[in-house]
Write a structure and sequence with these properties.
- This protein is an alpha+beta fold and 365 residues long.
- It folds into three domains: 83 residues, no CATH class; 60 residues; 179 residues, no CATH class.
- The protein is 47% helix and 10% strand.
- The strands form two sheets. The protein has a four-stranded mixed sheet. The chain has a three-stranded antiparallel sheet with strand order 1-3-7.
- The longest helix is centred in the middle third of the chain and has 57 residues.
Protein backbone atom coordinates (compact mmCIF):
# COMPACT_ATOMS: atom_id res chain seq x y z
CA UNK A 1 0.00 0.00 0.00
CA UNK A 2 1.50 3.24 -1.11
CA UNK A 3 1.55 6.06 1.35
CA UNK A 4 0.68 9.40 -0.13
CA UNK A 5 3.13 12.02 0.97
CA UNK A 6 2.27 15.65 1.17
CA UNK A 7 4.42 18.69 1.68
CA UNK A 8 2.76 21.22 3.94
CA UNK A 9 3.85 24.86 3.99
CA UNK A 10 5.76 25.83 7.11
CA UNK A 11 4.91 29.21 8.56
CA UNK A 12 7.85 31.01 10.04
CA UNK A 13 7.67 32.14 13.61
CA UNK A 14 8.21 35.80 14.41
CA UNK A 15 11.65 34.90 15.76
CA UNK A 16 12.61 33.20 12.48
CA UNK A 17 11.29 36.13 10.51
CA UNK A 18 13.53 38.41 12.53
CA UNK A 19 16.55 36.26 11.72
CA UNK A 20 15.66 36.60 8.03
CA UNK A 21 15.19 40.34 8.47
CA UNK A 22 18.55 40.84 10.14
CA UNK A 23 20.24 38.66 7.49
CA UNK A 24 18.65 40.77 4.76
CA UNK A 25 19.87 43.94 6.50
CA UNK A 26 23.41 42.54 6.75
CA UNK A 27 23.37 41.74 3.05
CA UNK A 28 22.29 45.27 2.20
CA UNK A 29 25.03 46.68 4.42
CA UNK A 30 27.53 44.65 2.41
CA UNK A 31 26.73 46.73 -0.66
CA UNK A 32 27.18 50.10 1.03
CA UNK A 33 31.00 50.23 0.82
CA UNK A 34 31.29 50.77 4.56
CA UNK A 35 34.68 51.49 6.17
CA UNK A 36 37.02 48.55 6.65
CA UNK A 37 34.92 46.54 4.18
CA UNK A 38 32.44 45.85 6.96
CA UNK A 39 29.82 43.34 5.80
CA UNK A 40 31.30 42.96 2.32
CA UNK A 41 31.18 39.15 2.50
CA UNK A 42 27.47 39.14 3.32
CA UNK A 43 26.47 40.62 -0.05
CA UNK A 44 27.89 37.64 -1.97
CA UNK A 45 27.22 34.96 0.63
CA UNK A 46 23.59 34.96 1.88
CA UNK A 47 24.24 31.85 3.99
CA UNK A 48 27.00 33.63 5.88
CA UNK A 49 24.67 36.57 6.50
CA UNK A 50 21.94 34.22 7.77
CA UNK A 51 24.28 32.34 10.10
CA UNK A 52 25.69 35.57 11.48
CA UNK A 53 22.18 36.90 12.11
CA UNK A 54 21.21 33.63 13.77
CA UNK A 55 24.27 33.65 16.02
CA UNK A 56 23.61 37.24 17.04
CA UNK A 57 19.93 36.71 17.84
CA UNK A 58 20.32 33.33 19.53
CA UNK A 59 22.37 34.87 22.33
CA UNK A 60 19.08 35.59 24.13
CA UNK A 61 15.93 33.58 24.84
CA UNK A 62 14.12 31.64 22.09
CA UNK A 63 11.91 34.63 21.33
CA UNK A 64 14.99 36.84 21.09
CA UNK A 65 13.59 39.46 23.44
CA UNK A 66 16.20 41.89 24.63
CA UNK A 67 18.61 41.02 21.85
CA UNK A 68 19.98 43.13 19.06
CA UNK A 69 16.63 42.90 17.30
CA UNK A 70 15.27 45.29 19.91
CA UNK A 71 17.43 48.04 18.42
CA UNK A 72 16.97 47.44 14.69
CA UNK A 73 14.14 49.36 13.00
CA UNK A 74 10.99 47.24 12.78
CA UNK A 75 12.20 44.49 15.08
CA UNK A 76 11.27 46.11 18.37
CA UNK A 77 7.77 46.82 17.06
CA UNK A 78 7.27 43.13 16.31
CA UNK A 79 8.60 42.18 19.73
CA UNK A 80 6.21 44.60 21.44
CA UNK A 81 3.23 43.21 19.50
CA UNK A 82 4.31 39.68 20.36
CA UNK A 83 4.22 40.63 24.03
CA UNK A 84 0.94 42.60 23.65
CA UNK A 85 2.89 45.61 24.93
CA UNK A 86 1.07 48.60 23.43
CA UNK A 87 3.33 51.08 25.19
CA UNK A 88 6.41 49.24 23.98
CA UNK A 89 5.01 49.32 20.46
CA UNK A 90 4.58 53.11 20.69
CA UNK A 91 8.15 53.49 21.90
CA UNK A 92 9.45 51.16 19.20
CA UNK A 93 8.56 53.68 16.50
CA UNK A 94 11.43 55.82 17.79
CA UNK A 95 13.64 53.43 15.83
CA UNK A 96 12.00 54.60 12.63
CA UNK A 97 12.81 58.27 13.20
CA UNK A 98 15.93 59.51 11.39
CA UNK A 99 18.54 60.66 13.90
CA UNK A 100 17.24 58.36 16.60
CA UNK A 101 16.25 61.13 18.97
CA UNK A 102 15.64 64.49 17.35
CA UNK A 103 12.05 63.69 16.37
CA UNK A 104 10.81 62.37 19.69
CA UNK A 105 7.62 64.44 19.61
CA UNK A 106 5.93 61.83 17.43
CA UNK A 107 6.56 58.85 19.70
CA UNK A 108 7.82 59.74 23.16
CA UNK A 109 5.14 62.24 24.12
CA UNK A 110 2.33 59.76 23.32
CA UNK A 111 4.29 57.23 25.37
CA UNK A 112 4.43 59.66 28.30
CA UNK A 113 0.69 60.24 27.90
CA UNK A 114 0.10 56.49 28.16
CA UNK A 115 2.05 56.36 31.41
CA UNK A 116 0.18 59.42 32.70
CA UNK A 117 -3.14 57.73 32.01
CA UNK A 118 -2.03 54.49 33.63
CA UNK A 119 -0.72 56.28 36.73
CA UNK A 120 -3.96 58.26 37.11
CA UNK A 121 -5.98 55.01 36.99
CA UNK A 122 -3.69 53.36 39.50
CA UNK A 123 -4.03 56.34 41.86
CA UNK A 124 -7.81 56.13 41.54
CA UNK A 125 -7.68 52.42 42.41
CA UNK A 126 -5.35 53.14 45.33
CA UNK A 127 -7.73 55.72 46.78
CA UNK A 128 -10.63 53.31 46.32
CA UNK A 129 -8.82 50.56 48.24
CA UNK A 130 -7.93 52.95 51.06
CA UNK A 131 -11.59 53.95 51.32
CA UNK A 132 -12.49 50.26 51.38
CA UNK A 133 -10.04 49.80 54.26
CA UNK A 134 -11.76 52.60 56.20
CA UNK A 135 -15.12 51.07 55.33
CA UNK A 136 -14.43 47.71 56.95
CA UNK A 137 -12.36 45.69 54.46
CA UNK A 138 -9.38 46.11 56.74
CA UNK A 139 -6.04 44.50 56.01
CA UNK A 140 -7.10 42.96 52.69
CA UNK A 141 -7.79 46.40 51.25
CA UNK A 142 -4.55 47.78 52.72
CA UNK A 143 -2.57 44.94 51.13
CA UNK A 144 -4.23 45.66 47.78
CA UNK A 145 -3.45 49.37 48.16
CA UNK A 146 0.20 48.61 48.92
CA UNK A 147 0.50 46.55 45.72
CA UNK A 148 -1.04 49.37 43.70
CA UNK A 149 1.32 51.89 45.32
CA UNK A 150 4.28 49.77 44.21
CA UNK A 151 2.90 49.74 40.65
CA UNK A 152 2.54 53.52 40.77
CA UNK A 153 6.20 53.95 41.75
CA UNK A 154 7.33 51.53 39.04
CA UNK A 155 5.37 53.36 36.34
CA UNK A 156 6.60 56.75 37.51
CA UNK A 157 10.19 55.48 37.24
CA UNK A 158 9.54 54.17 33.73
CA UNK A 159 7.89 57.44 32.70
CA UNK A 160 10.83 59.44 34.06
CA UNK A 161 13.24 57.35 31.99
CA UNK A 162 11.22 58.08 28.85
CA UNK A 163 11.18 61.81 29.63
CA UNK A 164 14.93 61.88 30.34
CA UNK A 165 15.56 60.36 26.90
CA UNK A 166 13.89 63.27 25.11
CA UNK A 167 16.73 65.30 23.65
CA UNK A 168 14.82 68.44 22.60
CA UNK A 169 14.59 70.72 25.69
CA UNK A 170 11.20 72.11 24.65
CA UNK A 171 9.65 68.69 24.14
CA UNK A 172 11.16 67.43 27.40
CA UNK A 173 9.73 70.40 29.33
CA UNK A 174 6.30 69.79 27.74
CA UNK A 175 6.45 66.13 28.77
CA UNK A 176 7.42 67.11 32.33
CA UNK A 177 4.44 69.48 32.58
CA UNK A 178 2.10 66.76 31.34
CA UNK A 179 2.80 64.67 34.44
CA UNK A 180 0.87 67.07 36.70
CA UNK A 181 -1.89 69.65 36.77
CA UNK A 182 -1.81 73.40 36.27
CA UNK A 183 -4.29 75.91 37.72
CA UNK A 184 -6.19 78.80 36.15
CA UNK A 185 -8.37 81.36 37.90
CA UNK A 186 -11.14 83.22 36.11
CA UNK A 187 -13.95 85.59 37.06
CA UNK A 188 -16.11 83.53 34.70
CA UNK A 189 -17.70 80.28 35.88
CA UNK A 190 -18.76 77.23 33.91
CA UNK A 191 -16.02 77.45 31.27
CA UNK A 192 -15.91 74.20 29.30
CA UNK A 193 -13.41 75.08 26.59
CA UNK A 194 -10.60 77.56 27.05
CA UNK A 195 -10.12 79.93 24.14
CA UNK A 196 -8.23 83.12 23.47
CA UNK A 197 -10.25 86.34 22.98
CA UNK A 198 -11.15 86.83 19.34
CA UNK A 199 -12.52 90.38 19.33
CA UNK A 200 -10.61 93.09 21.15
CA UNK A 201 -12.48 96.17 19.93
CA UNK A 202 -15.18 95.95 22.60
CA UNK A 203 -13.01 97.22 25.47
CA UNK A 204 -14.33 100.15 27.43
CA UNK A 205 -12.19 103.04 28.56
CA UNK A 206 -10.00 101.94 31.46
CA UNK A 207 -10.79 98.27 30.98
CA UNK A 208 -7.75 96.04 31.19
CA UNK A 209 -6.44 94.85 27.84
CA UNK A 210 -6.72 91.03 27.73
CA UNK A 211 -3.99 88.60 26.80
CA UNK A 212 -4.76 87.90 23.15
CA UNK A 213 -1.79 85.57 22.56
CA UNK A 214 -1.92 83.13 25.45
CA UNK A 215 -3.78 81.88 28.51
CA UNK A 216 -2.00 82.19 31.86
CA UNK A 217 -1.98 79.46 34.53
CA UNK A 218 0.12 78.67 37.59
CA UNK A 219 1.99 75.52 38.50
CA UNK A 220 0.99 75.50 42.19
CA UNK A 221 -2.58 75.93 43.52
CA UNK A 222 -1.15 77.68 46.61
CA UNK A 223 0.12 80.45 44.33
CA UNK A 224 -1.90 83.51 45.48
CA UNK A 225 -2.75 84.39 41.86
CA UNK A 226 -4.88 81.25 41.52
CA UNK A 227 -7.34 82.37 44.20
CA UNK A 228 -7.06 86.05 43.31
CA UNK A 229 -8.08 85.57 39.68
CA UNK A 230 -10.90 83.21 40.71
CA UNK A 231 -12.85 85.92 42.52
CA UNK A 232 -16.50 86.17 41.42
CA UNK A 233 -15.89 83.06 39.31
CA UNK A 234 -14.10 79.73 39.58
CA UNK A 235 -10.75 78.06 39.74
CA UNK A 236 -9.94 75.44 37.13
CA UNK A 237 -7.72 72.39 37.37
CA UNK A 238 -6.22 71.66 33.96
CA UNK A 239 -4.30 68.73 32.47
CA UNK A 240 -1.81 70.20 29.98
CA UNK A 241 -1.06 68.34 26.78
CA UNK A 242 1.70 70.52 25.33
CA UNK A 243 3.99 69.46 22.51
CA UNK A 244 6.84 71.93 22.98
CA UNK A 245 7.34 74.37 25.84
CA UNK A 246 9.77 77.30 25.87
CA UNK A 247 11.53 77.68 29.22
CA UNK A 248 11.98 81.46 29.33
CA UNK A 249 14.69 81.21 32.01
CA UNK A 250 16.75 78.93 29.74
CA UNK A 251 15.95 79.98 26.19
CA UNK A 252 18.01 78.43 23.37
CA UNK A 253 20.35 80.86 21.61
CA UNK A 254 18.42 80.69 18.32
CA UNK A 255 15.19 81.66 20.08
CA UNK A 256 16.90 84.57 21.84
CA UNK A 257 18.27 85.79 18.52
CA UNK A 258 14.88 85.63 16.77
CA UNK A 259 13.10 87.45 19.60
CA UNK A 260 15.93 89.97 19.82
CA UNK A 261 15.60 90.67 16.10
CA UNK A 262 11.86 91.20 16.53
CA UNK A 263 12.50 93.51 19.48
CA UNK A 264 14.87 95.78 17.57
CA UNK A 265 12.66 95.72 14.47
CA UNK A 266 9.64 96.91 16.46
CA UNK A 267 11.69 99.47 18.37
CA UNK A 268 13.05 101.34 15.34
CA UNK A 269 12.55 105.13 15.70
CA UNK A 270 10.65 105.21 12.40
CA UNK A 271 7.85 103.10 13.93
CA UNK A 272 6.67 106.04 16.09
CA UNK A 273 5.61 103.84 19.03
CA UNK A 274 3.84 106.64 20.86
CA UNK A 275 1.04 106.41 18.31
CA UNK A 276 0.89 102.61 18.19
CA UNK A 277 -0.22 101.07 21.48
CA UNK A 278 -0.13 97.52 20.14
CA UNK A 279 3.52 97.81 19.12
CA UNK A 280 4.36 99.31 22.51
CA UNK A 281 2.79 96.26 24.18
CA UNK A 282 4.81 93.90 21.99
CA UNK A 283 8.00 95.80 22.76
CA UNK A 284 7.27 95.63 26.50
CA UNK A 285 6.59 91.89 26.34
CA UNK A 286 9.79 91.13 24.41
CA UNK A 287 11.81 93.43 26.66
CA UNK A 288 10.46 91.64 29.75
CA UNK A 289 11.19 88.17 28.39
CA UNK A 290 14.66 89.02 27.11
CA UNK A 291 15.96 91.52 29.63
CA UNK A 292 13.62 91.47 32.63
CA UNK A 293 15.40 91.42 35.94
CA UNK A 294 14.46 90.67 39.53
CA UNK A 295 11.39 92.38 40.89
CA UNK A 296 7.93 92.95 39.55
CA UNK A 297 8.71 92.04 35.95
CA UNK A 298 11.26 89.21 36.20
CA UNK A 299 10.71 87.93 32.66
CA UNK A 300 6.92 87.49 33.05
CA UNK A 301 4.88 90.02 31.04
CA UNK A 302 1.40 90.80 32.34
CA UNK A 303 -0.10 90.34 28.86
CA UNK A 304 0.85 88.46 25.73
CA UNK A 305 0.07 89.66 22.20
CA UNK A 306 -0.98 87.60 19.22
CA UNK A 307 2.01 88.83 17.23
CA UNK A 308 4.58 87.59 19.77
CA UNK A 309 2.66 84.32 20.14
CA UNK A 310 2.67 83.84 16.37
CA UNK A 311 6.45 84.30 16.33
CA UNK A 312 6.86 81.52 18.89
CA UNK A 313 4.32 79.25 17.18
CA UNK A 314 6.39 79.54 14.02
CA UNK A 315 9.25 78.08 16.08
CA UNK A 316 6.97 75.12 16.99
CA UNK A 317 6.25 76.23 20.56
CA UNK A 318 2.72 75.93 21.92
CA UNK A 319 3.48 77.00 25.49
CA UNK A 320 5.90 78.88 27.72
CA UNK A 321 7.03 78.54 31.33
CA UNK A 322 8.16 81.70 33.13
CA UNK A 323 10.36 81.66 36.25
CA UNK A 324 8.87 82.78 39.58
CA UNK A 325 8.56 86.51 40.08
CA UNK A 326 9.91 88.13 43.22
CA UNK A 327 6.55 88.07 45.00
CA UNK A 328 5.71 86.08 48.11
CA UNK A 329 4.19 82.67 47.39
CA UNK A 330 4.42 82.88 43.61
CA UNK A 331 5.79 80.01 41.58
CA UNK A 332 6.29 79.39 37.89
CA UNK A 333 3.80 80.78 35.38
CA UNK A 334 2.53 78.72 32.43
CA UNK A 335 1.31 80.34 29.23
CA UNK A 336 -0.63 78.27 26.70
CA UNK A 337 -0.53 79.69 23.17
CA UNK A 338 -3.23 77.29 21.96
CA UNK A 339 -5.42 76.56 25.01
CA UNK A 340 -8.36 75.05 23.16
CA UNK A 341 -6.13 72.23 21.88
CA UNK A 342 -3.65 71.81 24.73
CA UNK A 343 -5.61 72.23 27.97
CA UNK A 344 -8.00 69.55 29.23
CA UNK A 345 -10.45 70.53 31.96
CA UNK A 346 -10.14 68.23 34.97
CA UNK A 347 -12.19 70.09 37.58
CA UNK A 348 -13.93 73.39 38.27
CA UNK A 349 -13.88 74.76 41.82
CA UNK A 350 -16.29 77.55 42.83
CA UNK A 351 -14.51 80.49 44.43
CA UNK A 352 -15.98 79.87 47.89
CA UNK A 353 -14.46 76.34 47.86
CA UNK A 354 -10.97 77.34 46.71
CA UNK A 355 -9.38 77.36 50.18
CA UNK A 356 -10.72 73.89 51.02
CA UNK A 357 -9.57 72.59 47.65
CA UNK A 358 -6.02 73.94 48.11
CA UNK A 359 -5.73 72.38 51.59
CA UNK A 360 -7.00 69.01 50.37
CA UNK A 361 -4.86 69.08 47.23
CA UNK A 362 -1.63 69.87 49.04
CA UNK A 363 -2.33 67.52 51.95
CA UNK A 364 -3.92 64.38 50.50
CA UNK A 365 -4.90 61.66 52.98
Amino acid sequence: MAIESKVYPVEQTNAEKRVDGLASLLQKMGGLNLPFDFGSSFEENPRSAYQTAQNILQTVDPYQQGGVGEYIPGFSTDLARERNDTLGEALSYLDMIPGGGAGLKMAVIPAVAKYNDKIRKLKFNYNREMKNADGGDGQDAINAANKIQKQIRENIDKRNKVINNITDPGERKAAELSTGNIFHGSSTSNIKNFKLPEHLDYLKTGQRYPSSGGLYSVINPADPRFKSFSKKGSGYVLNPNFNRTLDVANMPSDVIKDLDDMYYYIGRPSRNLNKNTNLKRQLYQLDTMLYGGAGSVNKTPAQFSQEVAKKLKNMDYDSLVFPPRNFKGEGETILSLDPSNTLNLAEEIPFDEIDDFIRAYLNPK
